[in-house]
Amino acid sequence: MELFHCFGARPEHRVDTRQAVAMLDASGCRYLAVNTHSIDQVTRGDDLPIGYSSATLGSVRDSLGEGSPVLPVLNINHPTTAAEAIDRTRRAVEMTGLRIIKLEVLDEGYHVSQNAAVVEAAAVLVAEGFEVWPLITPDAAVFADCVELGSTMVRVMGSPIGARRGIDPQWRTATEALLATATVPVMLDGGVGSVEHAVAAAEQGFSSILVNSCLFADGDPVAALREFRKAIDSVETPTELVGR
After folding, report:
1. Mapping DSSP to helix (H, G, I), strand (E, B) and coil, where does residue 11 land?
2. What is the C-alpha separation between 37 and 57, in angstroms, rounded?
3. Is 230 a catalytic residue?
4. Are 240 and 218 in contact (CB under 8 A)?
5. Which of 102, 203, 235, 236 is the most buried (most CB within 10 A)?
6. CA pair distance 48, 56, nearest whole angstrom
7. For residues 237 and 244, what is the distance between their CA atoms, to the nearest angstrom?
8. Any idea what the Cα angle at residue 143 is, between residues 141 and 147, rounded to 5°?
9. Tens digits of per-residue pLDDT, 179-203?
10. Which ranges in the chain belong to alpha helices (H)?
11. Could you tell me how far CA 116 lies from the centroid of its own chain?
């Protein structure tokens, strides 16, 4: 099971370049999420931030070195309309050359996906040749739309962003139905608040999870990622159990 993470959800979550590299080492994550919410404040792709402090795409990539297997992806974070998400993606791609898009369109409070707007934006961006990972609340029809238009992975919210409740009871049935019929990898992204939530996700059949704000609860995101990595590595997933 893959462990994805970002580098802070709020400005008080401070991650410099050294700590960002240490977080990637602790998690084993193969992807570096590059934030785009401050794209109007930079003129070079290398200056796009990793989190909310001094770490940037350029500084982290330089520290990782040319032989690193870590692949940067564009995190289209905090748009509230499909048009904003599409425009920002195009600008970020032009600045960086990156083609994998971690896409979201959120409500005004930045807590819950606007599913229809996400599908609208994803359809345009997939048609333009990008690899798109849309974020949705669990809904079988919306999930099917994402797969049909060509998304290579779908990110499904367990509960609202920052809620740290794991999979909300009101979304559990829909989530289980998606996992039972999924034909592309499914990431649990939104609401993960503990190692126990991560273990449950692995057991339920998610191919990956994303953690962020909970990593900073005790002030040491590197140690927190080591705990998450150790816990999910100890889980025998449904796929691993086949044939026993």
Report:
1. coil
2. 14
3. no
4. no
5. 102
6. 5
7. 12
8. 115
9. 999 999 999 999 899 999 999 999 9
10. 17-27, 57-64, 82-96, 115-127, 140-149, 169-181, 195-204, 221-233, 238-241
11. 19
Among candidate residues 5, 61, 102, 155, the one labeled active-site is 102
pLDDT band for 162, please (50, 70, 90 cuts). confident
Residue 219: pLDDT band (50, 70, 90) is confident
Rounded (10°) CA dihedral 188, 235, 183, 101? 40
Burial class (CB in 10 A: 0-12, 13-18, 19+), 88: buried
Cβ 154 vs Cβ 126: under 8 Å: no
Does residue 192 sit in helix, strand or coil?
coil
| Distance between CA atoms of residues 161 and 8, nearest Å | 12
DSSP secondary structure string, 17-55?
HHHHHHHHHHHT-SEEEEE-TTGGG-SSGGGSBSTTSS-
- How many angstroms separate the Cα of 1 from the Cα of each of 39, 156, 172, 202, 209? 32, 15, 20, 7, 8
